[in-house]
Amino acid sequence: MADVTALTFLALCLPLAGALAAPFVIRVFGANGAWLLAIAPLLAFLHFLRFVPVIARGEAVAGGYAWVPSYDLSFSWFLDGLSLAFALLITGIGTLIVLYAGGYLRGHKDQGRFFSFIFLFMGAMLGVVVSDSFLMFFIFWELTSITSFLLIGFDHEREAARRAALQALVVTGGGGLFLLAGLLLLWNMSGVTQLSLLIGSGDVVRESPLYLAALILVLVGAFTKSAQFPFHFWLPNAMEAPTPVSAYLHSATMVKAGVYLLMRLNPVMGATPAWEILLPFFGGLTLVVGAVLAIGQTDLKLKLAYTTVSSLGLLVLLVGFGSEYAVEAAALYLVAHSLFKGALFMVAGIIDHETGTRDITRLGGLMRAMPLTAIIALAAAFSMAGLPPFFGFLAKEEIYAALAGSDIRALTFTSIVVFGNALMFAVAFAVALKPFLGRSVETPKHPHEAPVLLWLGPAILAVLGFFAAVFSSSTHAALSSPISAAIRQSPVDIDISLAPHIGLPLALSVLTVLLGIGVYWQFARARSLMTVLLRAAGRGPDHGFDLAVSGLVRLAGRITRFTQPGRLDIYVTCTFVCVAAILLVPPIVYVELPRLPVWPADVRLHEWAVFLIAAVGLAGVLIARDRLTAIVSLGIQGFAVSIIFLLFGAPDLSFTQFMVETLSVVILALVMTRLRLVAADRRPFGRRIFDGTLALGCGLGFTLLLMRATQMPFNDALTAFFNTYSKSIAHGANVVNVIIVDFRGTDTLGEIAVVAVTGLAILALIRIRAGTERKLAANDPHAIEAEG
């Protein structure tokens, strides 16, 4: 077990190692370095592949290391059918993406930086799907947002890329904060901090009064990451990233993180009316919106991006539908979509790379120049369209078997899915056929077949889509059934195959094909119709995002100008108003005022003298006509307090107070004299009254607090602790010194740092003043006097 844990930890670290090595490897080997870099994800893939037989038997693999045991925090991972399938897709497709990027970005000046980013993203996504502890899961979840920001904005010299990267970060990162709140609620409801333990707490979570709040928070996090309506707009804009990024994001990684979360929490939060209403509703809406928007695009990548939005909506619909076969259909479609969408995106990149354009209206007749690419595109399109003999056909059949029913709910969602699938059918063949058929069209670059690094990845994915269907029993045993079993938390045996199975699902598939052929036949008209509808609908959520961001910036500017006007007196006044309110309001509201003290009758003469000194100092501050006199008079208050400490048996504290007051007076006097401020305090009478009232309020508040504290029963637990352990643990006889330098040494270090920074700031202020004086004197000898 120790060997498995160590090897798994090593496999999780391989993407990080690839990120560190990528710039050096690319600098030495150029684009061919992609073959070396692909070894890292390939080794991780082979490691996770070893667990397939174990997981297929219904077992799970867990491991990790305790981090902060007292808080039940650990660096732990958990592999079951769901997480293992995602790990295999991330590392397997990641290997092909690394090879593809080597050919796609050949000669790019920042290719090494790109590989570092893609490996960091791979590691973050891998961490999401294998993490067991809430803390690990959330950290990796947010890391996917940060690394995707770097990838989407890779071409940072273009404004569109910067905007798309920022938009993706804001939407997905903001959703992550909602998810954090949801995880904290789940922790509060279940009392566990690990996903593997949370799975068994479904009844506790569903019966909690906080269930609905936790569900909404989790759904916001999942919907933003998986681009569900109305958060779908960031995903097509992310097409500003290089095509290898688009292929990776849309096939197996970031956009499916939200789907993974919903599948993982299905045993915990599923099977409730809220779950079975919200997920199918938003999933179905996203399915239709994505498919309709895909029809209206002319850019190959955008068409595929919107179909990804549509497919994600279909997965969310299936997870929340609640029927017996819906989870099995989601598992099949998850695998099928990863294979065909990764292949089609890479095909779109090949077309762009070899012709110089992705505009479908400017492409045609590429079959003669790029026959291999055309075959790969057609194979992937068959799977996306749900046609045999590809795995997408099995997924579509299972989807219709799961949704079909006689009640109004089943009929509604079946109609939605048939409509969405028909549109995706048309888009699949528009991408796979229109650029290759027809007469040749002049393109910006002379087209020719792509090099091996570009076509190898999509070819492997297309072939896998074929073999996964032909050998469906093995595919189900290794992937589909374990995924479904993990989602449903019960044994599942999926047996759908390419063998003829006459029934309603097949009839719905035929209806989908006929509708899809009709849309494809009238594709130009359909695109024009969608364009008209989109114009009539308005600008949509994407424009709303811009308005929200600009409004937020304006609001922040106004708040900043109001709260940070640049005047120190306003800052100090606001601070003391808050202090006075905090000290006075709670004891008055909650009736916690202290008892009036009884003045002792045995006050001695020297004690009266100390109070008289303090009163004289206070009077001096109030009647002082210049600031310097007020500073010196103010120091008298501190000296009086120091004497009181001395009289009541705290000589070390008294000495510290003497030093602080002396330094304060000296530093303040030095600053006041060097800065040449106005000598006298010329505040208007009304301001003096306000400041005096505020000072009395703060003083009264602290007085009441101290009186209330001293009237409480004395708890000597800390005193006994320090007296007992100061000598034995810290090896010091002076308890006060031991407390300062050992028991709260970090606090003391912080105080020293504050004093040091303050001193440096004062020194800098004086030096700036001195420099200004020299410049003024050099230009005009009389300037200093005028400026002063």
Automatic annotation (TrEMBL):
<feature type="transmembrane region" description="Helical">
    <location>
        <begin position="608"/>
        <end position="624"/>
    </location>
</feature>
<feature type="domain" description="NADH:quinone oxidoreductase/Mrp antiporter transmembrane">
    <location>
        <begin position="131"/>
        <end position="414"/>
    </location>
</feature>
<feature type="transmembrane region" description="Helical">
    <location>
        <begin position="210"/>
        <end position="235"/>
    </location>
</feature>
<dbReference type="InterPro" id="IPR001516">
    <property type="entry name" value="Proton_antipo_N"/>
</dbReference>
<dbReference type="GO" id="GO:0015297">
    <property type="term" value="F:antiporter activity"/>
</dbReference>
<feature type="transmembrane region" description="Helical">
    <location>
        <begin position="631"/>
        <end position="649"/>
    </location>
</feature>
<keyword id="KW-0812">Transmembrane</keyword>
<dbReference type="InterPro" id="IPR025383">
    <property type="entry name" value="MrpA_C/MbhD"/>
</dbReference>
<feature type="transmembrane region" description="Helical">
    <location>
        <begin position="112"/>
        <end position="129"/>
    </location>
</feature>
<feature type="transmembrane region" description="Helical">
    <location>
        <begin position="411"/>
        <end position="432"/>
    </location>
</feature>
<keyword id="KW-1133">Transmembrane helix</keyword>
<feature type="domain" description="MrpA C-terminal/MbhE">
    <location>
        <begin position="687"/>
        <end position="767"/>
    </location>
</feature>
<keyword id="KW-0472">Membrane</keyword>
<feature type="transmembrane region" description="Helical">
    <location>
        <begin position="372"/>
        <end position="391"/>
    </location>
</feature>
<feature type="transmembrane region" description="Helical">
    <location>
        <begin position="277"/>
        <end position="295"/>
    </location>
</feature>
<dbReference type="InterPro" id="IPR046806">
    <property type="entry name" value="MrpA_C/MbhE"/>
</dbReference>
<feature type="domain" description="MrpA C-terminal/MbhD">
    <location>
        <begin position="613"/>
        <end position="676"/>
    </location>
</feature>
<feature type="transmembrane region" description="Helical">
    <location>
        <begin position="304"/>
        <end position="323"/>
    </location>
</feature>
<feature type="transmembrane region" description="Helical">
    <location>
        <begin position="452"/>
        <end position="471"/>
    </location>
</feature>
<dbReference type="GO" id="GO:0006811">
    <property type="term" value="P:monoatomic ion transport"/>
</dbReference>
<feature type="domain" description="NADH-Ubiquinone oxidoreductase (complex I) chain 5 N-terminal">
    <location>
        <begin position="69"/>
        <end position="115"/>
    </location>
</feature>
<feature type="transmembrane region" description="Helical">
    <location>
        <begin position="502"/>
        <end position="521"/>
    </location>
</feature>
<dbReference type="Pfam" id="PF00361">
    <property type="entry name" value="Proton_antipo_M"/>
</dbReference>
<keyword id="KW-1003">Cell membrane</keyword>
<feature type="transmembrane region" description="Helical">
    <location>
        <begin position="568"/>
        <end position="588"/>
    </location>
</feature>
<dbReference type="Pfam" id="PF20501">
    <property type="entry name" value="MbhE"/>
</dbReference>
<dbReference type="Pfam" id="PF00662">
    <property type="entry name" value="Proton_antipo_N"/>
</dbReference>
<dbReference type="InterPro" id="IPR050616">
    <property type="entry name" value="CPA3_Na-H_Antiporter_A"/>
</dbReference>
<feature type="transmembrane region" description="Helical">
    <location>
        <begin position="748"/>
        <end position="766"/>
    </location>
</feature>
<keyword id="KW-0406">Ion transport</keyword>
<feature type="transmembrane region" description="Helical">
    <location>
        <begin position="689"/>
        <end position="707"/>
    </location>
</feature>
<keyword id="KW-0050">Antiport</keyword>
<protein>
    <submittedName>
        <fullName>Putative monovalent cation/H+ antiporter subunit A</fullName>
    </submittedName>
</protein>
<feature type="transmembrane region" description="Helical">
    <location>
        <begin position="329"/>
        <end position="351"/>
    </location>
</feature>
<dbReference type="Pfam" id="PF13244">
    <property type="entry name" value="MbhD"/>
</dbReference>
<feature type="transmembrane region" description="Helical">
    <location>
        <begin position="655"/>
        <end position="677"/>
    </location>
</feature>
<dbReference type="GO" id="GO:0005886">
    <property type="term" value="C:plasma membrane"/>
</dbReference>
<dbReference type="InterPro" id="IPR001750">
    <property type="entry name" value="ND/Mrp_TM"/>
</dbReference>
<feature type="transmembrane region" description="Helical">
    <location>
        <begin position="31"/>
        <end position="49"/>
    </location>
</feature>
<feature type="transmembrane region" description="Helical">
    <location>
        <begin position="85"/>
        <end position="105"/>
    </location>
</feature>
<feature type="transmembrane region" description="Helical">
    <location>
        <begin position="166"/>
        <end position="190"/>
    </location>
</feature>
<keyword id="KW-0813">Transport</keyword>
